[in-house]
Design a protein that fits this description.
The protein has helices at about 10-15, 35-45, 65-75, 110-125, 145-155, 200-210, 220-235, and strands at about 20-25, 30-35, 50, 55-60, 85, 90-95, 100-105, 130, 135-140, 170-175, 175-180, 190-195, 215-220. It is of the alpha+beta class. The relative contact order is 0.21.
């Protein structure tokens, strides 16, 4: 039987040069570990870590009835612009009055998109649902020093009072247009930078250079899973 080729992110080659070992998740080749899981978890908890999360599902929902459709599919509570909520499948952020962004684990985007389209057809609502997973990279910064690093590359105020967990803002980071999503892992600050695939390699390198004095290091999927497991066990 002929197997479909694995999907790779725009950071794949750079991650390989940094010594990443890869694992396949939902058809993607994803960095699993660079050094050891323990070292990478410590880097994220106490300093600054950078992960390639480009395999994450990314869906944009637009149109005047979007909130009503998302209420049916996600039981979405009332949200302000720039505010996010956690659902059973992932995170949902309101970018504008009639535009929402869904951020979910790799491989779930087809099912979520299908369900959203089914609801719009059942209700007759005019809503546009667009899966942009393959057109956008997702670079994930994790660690207490993340706001310091981001403040060097972006004019947004990253103070927790101005940019708390589950906040979304669109801005420029190192002169590239990015959707910035705060998505903390328990007490550890974390930010997704979602932007054009074509600029991801440049942004990855710029982030590593800008964070060199902060002892920034790359981390893989195994460390991210460990952080998430630890957070769930503390909850």
């Amino acid at each position: 039987m002929i197997q479909s080729p694995s999907m790779i992110s725009p950071i794949h080659g750079l991650a390989r040069k940094l010594g990443a070992q890869f694992v396949e998740i939902a058809g993607w080749q994803v960095p699993q570990v660079y050094q050891t899981v323990e070292e990478e978890v410590a880097t994220a908890r106490h300093g600054l870590a950078l992960a390639d999360a480009s395999s994450s599902g990314k869906i944009v929902v637009e149109g005047a009835p979007s909130a009503a459709v998302l209420q049916v599919t996600w039981a979405m509570p009332a949200t302000n612009i720039g505010q996010g909520v956690i659902g059973a499948s992932g995170r949902l952020y309101r970018l504008r009055k009639e535009q929402f962004f869904i951020h979910i684990p790799a491989g779930q985007e087809q099912d979520v998109t299908r369900r959203l389209i089914e609801v719009t057809q059942e209700t007759g609502e005019k809503v546009t649902v667009t899966d942009i997973t393959h057109g956008r990279a997702d670079l994930l910064l994790v660690g207490p020093s993340s706001p310091v690093l981001l403040s060097r590359l972006c004019g947004v105020d990253f103070h927790p009072g101005q940019f708390p967990d589950l906040t979304a803002k669109q801005s420029t980071v190192a002169k590239t247009r990015q959707l910035i999503l705060r998505r903390d892992m328990g007490d550890t600050p974390a930010y997704s930078l979602i932007g054009a695939r074509s600029l991801a390699a440049y942004l990855w390198g710029t982030i590593l250079e800008a964070g060199s004095d902060l002892d920034i290091g790359p981390i893989g999927q195994a460390a991210l899973e460990r952080l998430q497991q630890d957070n769930r066990s503390r909850a």
